[in-house]
Protein backbone atom coordinates (compact mmCIF):
# COMPACT_ATOMS: atom_id res chain seq x y z
CA UNK A 1 0.00 0.00 0.00
CA UNK A 2 1.36 3.39 -1.00
CA UNK A 3 1.64 6.34 1.37
CA UNK A 4 -1.25 8.06 -0.43
CA UNK A 5 -3.47 4.99 -0.07
CA UNK A 6 -2.52 4.59 3.60
CA UNK A 7 -3.32 8.21 4.38
CA UNK A 8 -6.64 8.03 2.55
CA UNK A 9 -7.51 4.79 4.32
CA UNK A 10 -6.75 6.28 7.75
CA UNK A 11 -8.89 9.34 7.02
CA UNK A 12 -11.74 7.15 5.75
CA UNK A 13 -11.57 4.92 8.83
CA UNK A 14 -11.74 7.96 11.10
CA UNK A 15 -14.80 9.07 9.16
CA UNK A 16 -16.39 5.65 9.66
CA UNK A 17 -15.82 5.86 13.42
CA UNK A 18 -17.26 9.38 13.47
CA UNK A 19 -20.38 8.29 11.57
CA UNK A 20 -20.78 5.37 14.01
CA UNK A 21 -20.71 7.79 16.94
CA UNK A 22 -23.17 10.09 15.16
CA UNK A 23 -25.60 7.20 14.55
CA UNK A 24 -25.19 6.02 18.15
CA UNK A 25 -25.94 9.43 19.66
CA UNK A 26 -28.84 10.10 17.29
CA UNK A 27 -30.45 6.70 17.90
CA UNK A 28 -30.08 7.02 21.68
CA UNK A 29 -31.75 10.43 21.46
CA UNK A 30 -34.62 8.88 19.54
CA UNK A 31 -34.86 6.14 22.19
CA UNK A 32 -35.02 8.78 24.92
CA UNK A 33 -37.89 10.46 23.05
CA UNK A 34 -39.82 7.17 22.72
CA UNK A 35 -39.32 6.35 26.41
CA UNK A 36 -40.68 9.67 27.62
CA UNK A 37 -43.28 10.43 24.95
CA UNK A 38 -46.22 8.83 26.87
CA UNK A 39 -45.45 10.94 29.95
CA UNK A 40 -44.95 14.13 27.95
CA UNK A 41 -48.21 13.57 26.08
CA UNK A 42 -50.03 13.05 29.37
CA UNK A 43 -48.60 16.33 30.65
CA UNK A 44 -50.17 18.26 27.76
CA UNK A 45 -53.45 16.36 27.89
CA UNK A 46 -52.96 14.03 24.92
CA UNK A 47 -54.68 10.68 25.40
CA UNK A 48 -52.45 7.60 25.81
CA UNK A 49 -54.08 6.02 22.75
CA UNK A 50 -52.75 8.88 20.61
CA UNK A 51 -49.09 8.20 21.46
CA UNK A 52 -48.79 5.44 18.86
CA UNK A 53 -50.40 7.75 16.29
CA UNK A 54 -47.74 10.40 16.96
CA UNK A 55 -45.01 7.80 16.52
CA UNK A 56 -46.63 6.67 13.27
CA UNK A 57 -46.69 10.28 12.08
CA UNK A 58 -42.96 10.53 12.86
CA UNK A 59 -42.22 7.52 10.67
CA UNK A 60 -44.49 8.76 7.88
CA UNK A 61 -42.53 12.01 7.87
CA UNK A 62 -39.20 10.13 7.83
CA UNK A 63 -40.44 8.13 4.83
CA UNK A 64 -40.65 11.36 2.84
CA UNK A 65 -37.92 13.52 4.35
CA UNK A 66 -35.16 10.87 4.37
CA UNK A 67 -35.24 10.70 0.57
CA UNK A 68 -35.69 14.47 0.26
CA UNK A 69 -32.68 15.12 2.51
CA UNK A 70 -30.63 12.61 0.52
CA UNK A 71 -31.45 14.40 -2.73
CA UNK A 72 -30.55 17.73 -1.12
CA UNK A 73 -27.24 16.26 0.05
CA UNK A 74 -26.42 15.19 -3.53
CA UNK A 75 -26.89 18.76 -4.72
CA UNK A 76 -24.80 20.23 -1.89
CA UNK A 77 -22.01 17.63 -1.64
CA UNK A 78 -19.95 18.89 -4.64
CA UNK A 79 -19.24 22.10 -2.69
CA UNK A 80 -16.71 21.21 0.01
CA UNK A 81 -17.84 22.28 3.47
CA UNK A 82 -21.43 23.00 2.46
CA UNK A 83 -22.81 19.59 3.42
CA UNK A 84 -21.40 19.85 6.94
CA UNK A 85 -22.84 23.34 7.31
CA UNK A 86 -26.23 22.18 5.98
CA UNK A 87 -26.40 19.29 8.44
CA UNK A 88 -25.14 21.43 11.34
CA UNK A 89 -27.77 24.16 10.83
CA UNK A 90 -30.63 21.67 10.60
CA UNK A 91 -29.27 19.75 13.60
CA UNK A 92 -29.15 22.95 15.66
CA UNK A 93 -32.83 23.56 14.87
CA UNK A 94 -33.62 19.90 15.55
CA UNK A 95 -31.83 19.82 18.91
CA UNK A 96 -33.42 23.08 20.03
CA UNK A 97 -36.88 21.64 19.36
CA UNK A 98 -35.92 18.34 21.00
CA UNK A 99 -34.58 19.95 24.19
CA UNK A 100 -37.65 22.19 24.43
CA UNK A 101 -40.12 19.27 24.41
CA UNK A 102 -40.12 18.42 28.16
CA UNK A 103 -40.06 22.09 29.18
CA UNK A 104 -43.05 22.96 26.97
CA UNK A 105 -44.91 19.82 28.08
CA UNK A 106 -44.35 20.82 31.70
CA UNK A 107 -46.49 23.94 31.24
CA UNK A 108 -49.65 21.85 30.91
CA UNK A 109 -52.49 21.24 28.43
CA UNK A 110 -52.39 24.79 27.15
CA UNK A 111 -49.14 24.01 25.35
CA UNK A 112 -50.52 21.07 23.36
CA UNK A 113 -50.28 22.80 19.96
CA UNK A 114 -46.73 24.02 20.64
CA UNK A 115 -45.77 20.53 21.79
CA UNK A 116 -46.98 18.94 18.53
CA UNK A 117 -45.29 21.70 16.50
CA UNK A 118 -41.96 21.02 18.25
CA UNK A 119 -42.26 17.30 17.50
CA UNK A 120 -42.84 18.03 13.82
CA UNK A 121 -39.87 20.42 13.66
CA UNK A 122 -37.63 17.91 15.40
CA UNK A 123 -38.61 14.99 13.17
CA UNK A 124 -38.34 16.87 9.87
CA UNK A 125 -34.95 18.43 10.64
CA UNK A 126 -33.47 15.31 12.25
CA UNK A 127 -33.67 13.56 8.87
CA UNK A 128 -30.53 15.53 8.04
CA UNK A 129 -28.63 13.13 10.33
CA UNK A 130 -29.70 9.96 8.53
CA UNK A 131 -28.76 9.83 4.83
CA UNK A 132 -26.74 13.06 4.23
CA UNK A 133 -23.66 12.19 6.36
CA UNK A 134 -23.33 8.84 4.58
CA UNK A 135 -23.10 10.71 1.28
CA UNK A 136 -19.53 11.57 2.23
CA UNK A 137 -18.52 7.90 2.02
CA UNK A 138 -19.83 7.61 -1.53
CA UNK A 139 -18.21 10.87 -2.58
CA UNK A 140 -14.74 10.45 -1.08
CA UNK A 141 -14.07 6.85 0.01
CA UNK A 142 -12.37 4.29 -2.22
CA UNK A 143 -14.88 1.75 -3.52
CA UNK A 144 -13.25 -1.32 -1.89
CA UNK A 145 -13.35 0.41 1.52
CA UNK A 146 -17.07 1.20 1.46
CA UNK A 147 -18.35 -2.15 2.87
CA UNK A 148 -16.07 -1.90 5.93
CA UNK A 149 -16.96 1.76 6.43
CA UNK A 150 -20.66 0.89 6.13
CA UNK A 151 -20.18 -1.74 8.83
CA UNK A 152 -18.48 0.82 11.05
CA UNK A 153 -21.32 3.29 10.53
CA UNK A 154 -24.04 0.75 11.26
CA UNK A 155 -22.14 -0.31 14.39
CA UNK A 156 -23.43 2.86 16.04
CA UNK A 157 -27.00 1.87 15.20
CA UNK A 158 -26.40 -1.64 16.55
CA UNK A 159 -24.80 -0.46 19.79
CA UNK A 160 -27.76 1.86 20.39
CA UNK A 161 -30.12 -1.07 19.85
CA UNK A 162 -28.21 -3.14 22.39
CA UNK A 163 -28.23 -0.36 25.00
CA UNK A 164 -31.85 0.71 24.53
CA UNK A 165 -33.47 -1.90 26.85
CA UNK A 166 -31.19 -0.84 29.71
CA UNK A 167 -31.82 2.82 28.93
CA UNK A 168 -35.54 2.24 29.28
CA UNK A 169 -35.07 0.70 32.72
CA UNK A 170 -32.73 3.46 33.92
CA UNK A 171 -34.63 6.50 32.62
CA UNK A 172 -38.26 5.55 32.98
CA UNK A 173 -38.76 7.05 36.45
CA UNK A 174 -36.50 10.10 36.07
CA UNK A 175 -37.39 13.67 35.20
CA UNK A 176 -37.16 13.93 31.38
CA UNK A 177 -35.60 17.39 31.24
CA UNK A 178 -32.03 16.38 32.06
CA UNK A 179 -31.89 13.40 29.64
CA UNK A 180 -33.32 15.57 26.86
CA UNK A 181 -30.80 18.35 27.50
CA UNK A 182 -27.87 15.93 27.64
CA UNK A 183 -29.00 14.07 24.50
CA UNK A 184 -29.60 17.28 22.57
CA UNK A 185 -26.30 18.92 23.51
CA UNK A 186 -24.23 15.80 22.80
CA UNK A 187 -25.95 15.31 19.44
CA UNK A 188 -25.40 18.93 18.43
CA UNK A 189 -21.72 18.86 19.38
CA UNK A 190 -21.26 15.61 17.45
CA UNK A 191 -23.02 16.97 14.37
CA UNK A 192 -21.00 20.20 14.41
CA UNK A 193 -17.87 18.11 13.84
CA UNK A 194 -19.17 16.97 10.45
CA UNK A 195 -17.75 20.04 8.69
CA UNK A 196 -14.24 19.16 9.88
CA UNK A 197 -14.73 15.53 8.86
CA UNK A 198 -15.84 16.69 5.41
CA UNK A 199 -12.81 18.98 5.00
CA UNK A 200 -10.43 16.20 6.12
CA UNK A 201 -11.88 13.86 3.51
CA UNK A 202 -11.64 16.51 0.81
CA UNK A 203 -8.01 17.29 1.70
CA UNK A 204 -6.92 13.65 1.92
CA UNK A 205 -4.79 12.39 -0.99
CA UNK A 206 -7.11 11.36 -3.78
CA UNK A 207 -7.46 7.68 -4.60
CA UNK A 208 -8.02 6.43 -8.13
CA UNK A 209 -11.73 6.40 -8.89
CA UNK A 210 -13.79 6.06 -12.02
CA UNK A 211 -14.91 9.31 -13.64
CA UNK A 212 -18.27 10.38 -12.27
CA UNK A 213 -21.00 10.49 -14.88
CA UNK A 214 -24.13 12.62 -14.57
CA UNK A 215 -26.80 11.17 -12.29
CA UNK A 216 -29.27 8.92 -14.07
CA UNK A 217 -32.83 7.86 -13.20
CA UNK A 218 -32.98 4.68 -11.15
CA UNK A 219 -33.40 1.60 -13.33
CA UNK A 220 -35.40 -1.57 -12.62
CA UNK A 221 -32.69 -3.31 -10.56
CA UNK A 222 -32.21 -0.39 -8.12
CA UNK A 223 -35.98 -0.11 -7.72
CA UNK A 224 -36.19 -3.85 -7.03
CA UNK A 225 -33.39 -3.35 -4.50
CA UNK A 226 -35.41 -0.65 -2.68
CA UNK A 227 -38.59 -2.76 -2.77
CA UNK A 228 -36.64 -5.68 -1.33
CA UNK A 229 -35.30 -3.39 1.39
CA UNK A 230 -38.88 -2.53 2.39
CA UNK A 231 -39.75 -6.24 2.63
CA UNK A 232 -36.58 -7.12 4.57
CA UNK A 233 -37.17 -4.22 6.95
CA UNK A 234 -40.75 -5.31 7.53
CA UNK A 235 -39.51 -8.80 8.39
CA UNK A 236 -37.10 -7.30 10.93
CA UNK A 237 -39.79 -5.09 12.46
CA UNK A 238 -42.28 -7.92 12.86
CA UNK A 239 -39.73 -10.35 14.25
CA UNK A 240 -37.84 -8.15 16.68
CA UNK A 241 -40.43 -5.59 17.77
CA UNK A 242 -43.53 -7.82 17.91
CA UNK A 243 -42.53 -11.49 18.13
CA UNK A 244 -39.25 -11.53 20.08
CA UNK A 245 -40.72 -10.56 23.46
CA UNK A 246 -43.36 -13.33 23.43
CA UNK A 247 -40.68 -15.79 22.33
CA UNK A 248 -38.52 -15.00 25.34
CA UNK A 249 -41.47 -14.94 27.74
CA UNK A 250 -42.02 -18.62 26.96
CA UNK A 251 -38.86 -19.40 28.93
CA UNK A 252 -37.97 -16.28 30.93
CA UNK A 253 -39.49 -13.74 33.30
CA UNK A 254 -40.34 -10.19 32.21
CA UNK A 255 -37.59 -8.67 34.35
CA UNK A 256 -35.03 -10.75 32.42
CA UNK A 257 -35.95 -9.21 29.06
CA UNK A 258 -33.47 -6.28 29.30
CA UNK A 259 -30.68 -8.87 29.45
CA UNK A 260 -32.07 -11.10 26.67
CA UNK A 261 -33.27 -8.67 24.00
CA UNK A 262 -29.72 -7.31 23.30
CA UNK A 263 -28.64 -10.79 22.12
CA UNK A 264 -30.08 -9.87 18.72
CA UNK A 265 -27.91 -6.73 18.57
CA UNK A 266 -24.79 -8.56 19.69
CA UNK A 267 -25.14 -10.80 16.64
CA UNK A 268 -25.86 -7.72 14.52
CA UNK A 269 -22.67 -5.95 15.59
CA UNK A 270 -20.37 -8.96 15.33
CA UNK A 271 -21.46 -10.29 11.93
CA UNK A 272 -21.22 -7.07 9.92
CA UNK A 273 -17.44 -6.92 9.77
CA UNK A 274 -16.66 -10.38 8.35
CA UNK A 275 -19.64 -9.96 6.02
CA UNK A 276 -18.15 -6.70 4.73
CA UNK A 277 -15.27 -8.73 3.28
CA UNK A 278 -17.76 -10.80 1.29
CA UNK A 279 -19.51 -7.64 0.08
CA UNK A 280 -16.16 -6.28 -1.07
CA UNK A 281 -15.57 -9.28 -3.32
CA UNK A 282 -19.08 -10.47 -4.23
CA UNK A 283 -21.29 -7.39 -3.93
CA UNK A 284 -24.04 -6.23 -1.65
CA UNK A 285 -26.97 -7.89 -3.43
CA UNK A 286 -25.45 -11.34 -2.92
CA UNK A 287 -24.88 -10.75 0.79
CA UNK A 288 -28.34 -9.25 1.28
CA UNK A 289 -29.94 -12.22 -0.43
CA UNK A 290 -27.92 -14.87 1.39
CA UNK A 291 -28.42 -13.14 4.74
CA UNK A 292 -32.16 -12.96 4.07
CA UNK A 293 -32.36 -16.72 3.56
CA UNK A 294 -30.14 -17.52 6.55
CA UNK A 295 -32.08 -15.04 8.67
CA UNK A 296 -35.36 -16.73 7.71
CA UNK A 297 -33.94 -20.03 8.99
CA UNK A 298 -32.85 -18.32 12.22
CA UNK A 299 -36.31 -16.84 12.74
CA UNK A 300 -37.81 -20.25 12.06
CA UNK A 301 -35.47 -21.64 14.72
CA UNK A 302 -36.68 -19.00 17.18
CA UNK A 303 -40.28 -19.90 16.40
CA UNK A 304 -39.66 -23.57 17.11
CA UNK A 305 -37.11 -23.26 19.96
CA UNK A 306 -37.75 -25.74 22.73
CA UNK A 307 -35.64 -24.06 25.39
CA UNK A 308 -34.04 -20.73 26.23
CA UNK A 309 -30.55 -21.66 25.01
CA UNK A 310 -31.77 -22.55 21.53
CA UNK A 311 -33.83 -19.37 21.42
CA UNK A 312 -30.81 -17.25 22.40
CA UNK A 313 -28.74 -18.87 19.66
CA UNK A 314 -31.50 -18.32 17.09
CA UNK A 315 -31.89 -14.66 18.10
CA UNK A 316 -28.13 -14.16 17.83
CA UNK A 317 -28.16 -15.59 14.31
CA UNK A 318 -31.22 -13.55 13.33
CA UNK A 319 -29.49 -10.39 14.53
CA UNK A 320 -26.34 -11.37 12.64
CA UNK A 321 -28.40 -11.82 9.47
CA UNK A 322 -30.08 -8.42 9.87
CA UNK A 323 -26.71 -6.78 10.45
CA UNK A 324 -25.41 -8.29 7.22
CA UNK A 325 -28.52 -7.18 5.34
CA UNK A 326 -28.34 -3.59 6.57
CA UNK A 327 -24.59 -3.19 6.08
CA UNK A 328 -24.80 -4.69 2.58
CA UNK A 329 -27.78 -2.46 1.77
CA UNK A 330 -25.86 0.70 2.65
CA UNK A 331 -22.86 -0.50 0.62
CA UNK A 332 -25.09 -1.34 -2.34
CA UNK A 333 -26.91 2.00 -2.10
CA UNK A 334 -23.65 3.95 -2.22
CA UNK A 335 -22.51 1.91 -5.22
CA UNK A 336 -25.82 2.22 -7.07
CA UNK A 337 -25.84 5.97 -6.56
CA UNK A 338 -22.19 6.58 -7.36
CA UNK A 339 -23.02 8.80 -10.34
CA UNK A 340 -23.90 11.62 -7.99
CA UNK A 341 -27.05 10.07 -6.48
CA UNK A 342 -25.52 8.51 -3.36
CA UNK A 343 -27.68 10.56 -1.04
CA UNK A 344 -30.85 9.79 -2.98
CA UNK A 345 -30.37 6.02 -2.91
CA UNK A 346 -29.22 5.92 0.73
CA UNK A 347 -32.17 8.16 1.55
CA UNK A 348 -34.46 5.63 -0.12
CA UNK A 349 -32.96 2.90 2.10
CA UNK A 350 -33.74 4.94 5.21
CA UNK A 351 -37.20 5.69 3.83
CA UNK A 352 -37.72 1.94 3.43
CA UNK A 353 -36.76 1.42 7.08
CA UNK A 354 -39.19 4.16 8.15
CA UNK A 355 -42.00 2.74 6.00
CA UNK A 356 -41.55 -0.71 7.55
CA UNK A 357 -41.55 0.82 11.03
CA UNK A 358 -44.77 2.67 10.17
CA UNK A 359 -46.36 -0.61 9.02
CA UNK A 360 -45.36 -2.38 12.24
CA UNK A 361 -46.75 0.46 14.36
CA UNK A 362 -49.98 0.39 12.33
CA UNK A 363 -50.30 -3.31 13.08
CA UNK A 364 -49.79 -2.63 16.79
CA UNK A 365 -52.23 0.30 16.74
CA UNK A 366 -54.80 -1.96 15.10
CA UNK A 367 -54.28 -4.58 17.80
CA UNK A 368 -53.39 -7.31 15.30
CA UNK A 369 -51.02 -8.97 17.76
CA UNK A 370 -53.96 -9.46 20.15
CA UNK A 371 -56.33 -11.01 17.61
CA UNK A 372 -56.08 -14.83 17.48
CA UNK A 373 -57.03 -14.98 13.80
CA UNK A 374 -53.98 -12.87 12.89
CA UNK A 375 -51.52 -14.78 15.09
CA UNK A 376 -50.34 -17.13 12.28
CA UNK A 377 -49.81 -14.15 9.95
CA UNK A 378 -47.62 -12.28 12.43
CA UNK A 379 -45.83 -15.49 13.37
CA UNK A 380 -44.79 -16.49 9.86
CA UNK A 381 -44.60 -13.12 8.11
CA UNK A 382 -40.93 -12.48 9.11
CA UNK A 383 -39.88 -15.84 7.68
CA UNK A 384 -41.80 -15.12 4.48
CA UNK A 385 -40.43 -11.56 4.15
CA UNK A 386 -36.80 -12.54 4.58
CA UNK A 387 -36.95 -15.71 2.48
CA UNK A 388 -38.88 -14.18 -0.46
CA UNK A 389 -36.82 -10.97 -0.60
CA UNK A 390 -33.59 -12.91 -0.06
CA UNK A 391 -34.33 -15.35 -2.86
CA UNK A 392 -35.32 -12.53 -5.20
CA UNK A 393 -32.10 -10.63 -4.53
CA UNK A 394 -30.01 -13.74 -5.18
CA UNK A 395 -31.80 -14.32 -8.48
CA UNK A 396 -31.17 -10.72 -9.55
CA UNK A 397 -27.51 -10.91 -8.47
CA UNK A 398 -27.01 -14.21 -10.31
CA UNK A 399 -28.58 -12.91 -13.53
CA UNK A 400 -26.38 -9.80 -13.43
CA UNK A 401 -23.28 -11.93 -12.96
CA UNK A 402 -24.25 -14.12 -15.90
CA UNK A 403 -24.61 -11.05 -18.09
CA UNK A 404 -21.18 -9.86 -16.98
CA UNK A 405 -22.78 -7.06 -14.94
CA UNK A 406 -21.14 -4.52 -12.76
CA UNK A 407 -20.75 -6.77 -9.76
CA UNK A 408 -18.44 -9.15 -11.62
CA UNK A 409 -15.91 -6.43 -12.46
CA UNK A 410 -12.93 -6.25 -10.07
CA UNK A 411 -12.76 -2.45 -10.26
CA UNK A 412 -16.25 -2.23 -8.80
CA UNK A 413 -16.00 -5.16 -6.42
CA UNK A 414 -18.14 -3.51 -3.78
CA UNK A 415 -20.81 -2.27 -6.14
CA UNK A 416 -24.27 -3.44 -6.94
CA UNK A 417 -25.49 -0.73 -9.24
TrEMBL record:
Keyword Endoplasmic reticulum among record annotations = no
* Superkingdom of the source species: Bacteria
Please give the Gene3D superfamilies that the UniProt record associates with this protein.
Answer: MFS general substrate transporter like domains
Cross-referenced Pfam families = MFS_1
Which SUPFAM superfamilies would you find in this protein's record? MFS general substrate transporter
Q: Which residues form the signal peptide?
A: none
Key words of the record: Membrane, Transmembrane, Transmembrane helix
Q: Which GO terms describe its molecular function?
A: transmembrane transporter activity
Query: This chain belongs to which protein, by name?
Result: MFS transporter
Q: Which organism is it from?
A: Bradyrhizobium icense
Amino acid sequence: MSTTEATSSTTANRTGVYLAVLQLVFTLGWTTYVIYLPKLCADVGIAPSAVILILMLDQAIFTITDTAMGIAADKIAPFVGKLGAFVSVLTAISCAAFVALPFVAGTGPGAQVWFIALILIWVVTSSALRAPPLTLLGKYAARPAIPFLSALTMLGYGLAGAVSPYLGVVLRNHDPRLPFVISGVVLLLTALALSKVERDLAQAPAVAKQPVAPAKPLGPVPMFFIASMVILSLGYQLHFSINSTPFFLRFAKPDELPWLMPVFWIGFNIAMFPASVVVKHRGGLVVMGAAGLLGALAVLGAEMAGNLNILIAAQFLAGAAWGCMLMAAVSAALAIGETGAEGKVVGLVFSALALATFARMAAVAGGLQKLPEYAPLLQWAPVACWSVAGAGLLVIAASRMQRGGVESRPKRSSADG
